[in-house]
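pinging the channel bc i need a second pair of eyes. not urgent but kinda urgent?? the chain im working w is below, pasted from the shared doc
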Amino acid sequence: MSDPRTDGSGYHRVRRVVGAIRWYVRGVLGADAYERYAAHQSARHPDLPLMDERSFWRAKYADMDRHPQSRCC
């Protein structure tokens, strides 16, 4: 009996679809903001230190409170 994870069945396709859905939802909800920040800082400003994730979210939410824009919540 073959392993469904390696025999070319729909397993890989399902994993790819689930991964795409996860990527989309994280983007819509903004859950990937720190990863995008870290990638941008590393690429554009490698000489500056990165904020840790906790500090990043604290600063992001403080900025959102200071500058409200149209958003759902």
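so DSSP finds three helices and no strands in the chain. and The CA atoms of residues 3 and 9 lie 9 Å apart. — does that match what u expected or am i reading it wrong
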